[in-house]
């Protein structure tokens, strides 16, 4: 059973779900254990594009959850950056890169 506050968090309008952001998360986390937990968390929002970088396409609700969850998983000695990119932005890549199209992410 969800509390009223939890239900309100999940009760978003159609507009909240229809707007999508392309998001890039890059990180430098010192401790292995903390880094592994962070990777597990951020994997729920996108896919790894480099060893310390994840990319995803998130609606407003998932974007907020990502931003709220990051500070809970790092310390002041870590560095995490989240870039919200416009949908018409161009991404160029070279090298051993998998050509992955951005799809909606569903966290269960």
Automatic annotation (TrEMBL):
EC number: 3.1.-.-
UniProt gene name: cas2
Molecular function terms from GO: hydrolase activity; metal ion binding; RNA endonuclease activity
Family in the record: Belongs to the CRISPR-associated endoribonuclease Cas2 protein family.
Role played: CRISPR (clustered regularly interspaced short palindromic repeat), is an adaptive immune system that provides protection against mobile genetic elements (viruses, transposable elements and conjugative plasmids). CRISPR clusters contain sequences complementary to antecedent mobile elements and target invading nucleic acids. CRISPR clusters are transcribed and processed into CRISPR RNA (crRNA). Functions as a ssRNA-specific endoribonuclease. Involved in the integration of spacer DNA into the CRISPR cassette.
Keywords (A to Z) from UniProt: Antiviral defense, Endonuclease, Hydrolase, Magnesium, Metal-binding, Nuclease
Subunit (UniProt): Homodimer, forms a heterotetramer with a Cas1 homodimer.
Native source species: [Clostridium] polysaccharolyticum
Pfam hit, one: CRISPR_Cas2
Positions contributing to Mg(2+) binding: 28
Protein name, UniProt field: CRISPR-associated endoribonuclease Cas2
Record-linked InterPro entries: CRISPR_associated_Cas2, Virulence_VapD/CRISPR_Cas2
Annotated GO biological process: defense response to virus; maintenance of CRISPR repeat elements
Top enzyme category: hydrolase
Cofactor: Mg(2+)
